[in-house]
Amino acid sequence: MRNRRPFKVTRKKKNGAEEDRSIADIVTDLTKGGTNSNNYRQASLRMYGLICAKCGREFEGPDQHLLTVHHKDGNHLNNPPDGSNWENLCIDCHDDEHSRGLLGDYLKPD
After folding, report:
1. CATH class for the domain made up of 38-110
2. Residue-by-residue pLDDT tens, the chain, 110 positions
């Protein structure tokens, strides 16, 4: 069996320098809310509470994972610090929000 090297991702930084990072490092940053994720979910939950903005369902401890952060403009990279592009939705309301356009397009007369 041959010796395997860990897979590395090379990306250019804003200053033009290149940075090599392993997949494990990237996954760690994302799961910890590190430099690559901005951790907008935690910020939104703190700002707006553990309640669905659409149906009003409240969430506690073990059920928090059922509450999602919806980006109003559809751009998950648009995360202003004031939270103006976020609303907390339960998974049912979030699915409904994203399926409305699809259903409307399907039912629209030709």
Report:
1. alpha beta
2. 555 555 555 655 666 666 677 777 766 665 554 433 458 899 999 999 999 999 999 999 889 999 999 999 988 888 888 999 999 999 999 999 988 777 677 777 76
